[in-house]
C-alpha cells in the first residue's frame, strides 16, 4: 500500500515547490508514481522522495518532467533555484541522514565530531558558542547531542570514518580534565572495530579542507550527500559534481593522514603531555 503523500508547503523552500508541482502535474495527468517512473525511467522510490521534498532532484529529471508534462521549462527553472538553496532545516536533515545512511565519513578541523563528544566537552562548546545561553538551554542541547550517540548502539550502526586535524587534539576545550577525558574517549574508539580514526598531523601542511568541517553521508547504493560547515555557514551539497570534488578531497587527506594504529598512539601521546 502506497504511503500517503507528505504535506508540502511551497512557500517553505524551492524543493517543496518542486515536489508540489511534480505531484500536481502527475495527478492531473492521472499517473501514479509507478506509472510515471516507468515513463521517464526513474526509480519509483527516488521519485517519491523528490515529491516529498526529502532530497534534491538529480540532474536530468527536470528536463524529463518538462518533456512529459509539456510544462516548457518550469521544472528546469525550479531545479536551478533548488540547487542554490540551503536546506530549510539543516539540523533535522543531518539527523535524518545519520539515521539512514550506511557510512559516515567526517573531516574535523577544529573540534571533535558530535558523535564522539563527551557530555562535558559538548557542554564547554555550547557555553562558549553563545555566552548568553541559559544553563537550562545548554543542558537541553547537551542532552540532544548525547541522544544522537544512541545511533552507535543500533543493531546495524553506520560505518564511521574520521580524519581529525591535529588542532582538534591540541586545543584544551573545557580545561585540562575535560580535554583529557575527551581524548581518552577518542583513544578508546580509535582502537575499536566500529570506528576508523585517522589524525592529520600539522607537518602535512596545507590541504583543500582547511578552515572547514566536512561530513559525507553515503547510502547503501553509494549515493552521497556532503555537508560542509564554516564559522558562519552550513550547507548540504547534493550536486554530483560538487559532491565528487569533496569526496576526492577527503580521500586525498585519508591517504596522507596517519594510519588508525599510529593515530591511536598519537592520541595517547597527546594525553600523556597534558599537565595534571
Automatic annotation (TrEMBL):
InterPro entries for this protein: Cro/C1-type_HTH, DUF5753, Lambda_DNA-bd_dom_sf
Domain named HTH cro/C1-type: residues: 22-75
GO molecular function: DNA binding
Pfam family membership, one: DUF5753
Family annotation (CDD domains): HTH_XRE
Cited Gene3D superfamilies: lambda repressor-like DNA-binding domains (1.10.260.40)
Superkingdom classification of source: Bacteria
The name this protein goes by in its record: Helix-turn-helix domain-containing protein
Amino acid at each position: 500500500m502506497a504511503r500517503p503523500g507528505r504535506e508540502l508547503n511551497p512557500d517553505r523552500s524551492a524543493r517543496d515547490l518542486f515536489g508540489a508541482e511534480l505531484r500536481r502535474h502527475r495527478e492531473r495527468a492521472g499517473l501514479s508514481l509507478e506509472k510515471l517512473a516507468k515513463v521517464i525511467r526513474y526509480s519509483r522510490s527516488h521519485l517519491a522522495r523528490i515529491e516529498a521534498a526529502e532530497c534534491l532532484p538529480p540532474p536530468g529529471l527536470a528536463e524529463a518532467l518538462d518533456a512529459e508534462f509539456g510544462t516548457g521549462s518550469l521544472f528546469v527553472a525550479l531545479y536551478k533555484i533548488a540547487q542554490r538553496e540551503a536546506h530549510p532545516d539543516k539540523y533535522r536533515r543531518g539527523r535524518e541522514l545519520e539515521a539512514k545512511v550506511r557510512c559516515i565519513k567526517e573531516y574535523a578541523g577544529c573540534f571533535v565530531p558530535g558523535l564522539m563528544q563527551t557530555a562535558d566537552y559538548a557542554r564547554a562548546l555550547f557555553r562558549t558558542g553563545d555566552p548568553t545561553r541559559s544553563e537550562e538551554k545548554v543542558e537541553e542541547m547537551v542532552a540532544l547531542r548525547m541522544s544522537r550517540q544512541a545511533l552507535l548502539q543500533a543493531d546495524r550502526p553506520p560505518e564511521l570514518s574520521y580524519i581529525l586535524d591535529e588542532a582538534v587534539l591540541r586545543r584544551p576545550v573545557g580545561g585540562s580534565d575535560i580535554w583529557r577525558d575527551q581524548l581518552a574517549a577518542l583513544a578508546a574508539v580509535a582502537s575499536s572495530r566500529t570506528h576508523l580514526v585517522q589524525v592529520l598531523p600539522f607537518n602535512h601542511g596545507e590541504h583543500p579542507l582547511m578552515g572547514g568541517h566536512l561530513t559525507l553521508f553515503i547510502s547503501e547504493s553509494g549515493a552521497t550527500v556532503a555537508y560542509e560547515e564554516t564559522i558562519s555557514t552550513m550547507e548540504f551539497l547534493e550536486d554530483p559534481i560538487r559532491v565528487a570534488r569533496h569526496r576526492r578531497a577527503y580521500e586525498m587527506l585519508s591517504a596522507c593522514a596517519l594510519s588508525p594504529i599510529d593515530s591511536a598512539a598519537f592520541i595517547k601521546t597527546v594525553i600523556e603531555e597534558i599537565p595534571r
